[in-house]
Structures are given as C-alpha cells and as structure tokens.
Amino acid sequence: PIDPNFRENRVATTFENLKVWKDKASNLGIYGTGVAVDFDLCVGDGACIDVCPVNVFDWHGSGADRKALPARERDCIYCYGCEAVCPKFAIRVTPL
Ligand code: SF4
To answer: What pLDDT shows up at residue 26?
Structure first.
C-alpha cells in the first residue's frame, strides 16, 4: 500500500500542476498530495476513474503502462471512493 507518511518520507518534485513525491527506491513516485496515487503500485485498472463523482482523474500514459493521474485533485469532495476501490491500496486521500 501507499505510504501514509509520504510527505515526510519523500522529496517533492513537480509535474504539471501536481507535486510528485520521490524516494530513492521509487522509479515513478507518488503523484498528487490531497489525492495521492502511488504510480509504482497503480496497475491502471481504472476503478478510481470510474468511481470518482467529480472527475478528478485523467489517464496518464497508455496501454499496460497507463496510470490514474489525479489531475484535478483540488476538485475532490473527499468521498474516499477511490481509496476503497483501488485493488493495490495505491491511493491516499487527505483533506488539505
Ligand atoms: Fe474522487 Fe472521491 Fe477519490 Fe476525491 S475521494 S478523488 S471525490 S473518488
């Protein structure tokens, strides 16, 4: 599962309007902060994209490598649906 303390344990870089939280062992990192998706765990099944009532996510990449990007994390209404449906527990939602 995603590290709930990623903000303390990782260093932030940026991608578009999001922070990307990197650590030494992580190739891809955690994208987003209030709605954080660990790209190293995401299997791209799209359950979070389907469940989100306010369209926070976009696909990032394509094919087997696609990931759920929390492109509009500021629109999140904190229903926690995405956390609940993720088969890899790759998402952490934290009201900012
Ligand atoms: Fe969307 Fe709910 Fe997840 Fe927020 S917590 S990103 S509103 S599914």
So the answer is: 80
The preferred substitution site among 2, 54, 96 for testing ligand 1, maximizing ligand atoms within 8 Å of CB, is 54
**CATH level 3 topology of 6-93:** Alpha-Beta Plaits (3.30.70)
**53, 35 in Cβ contact below 8 A?**
no
- Ordered by start, the domain boundaries in the chain are 6-93
Q: Is the dihedral of CA 95, 38, 25, 11 positive or negative?
A: negative
ipTM: 0.98
CA of 80 to the centre of ligand 1 (A): 5
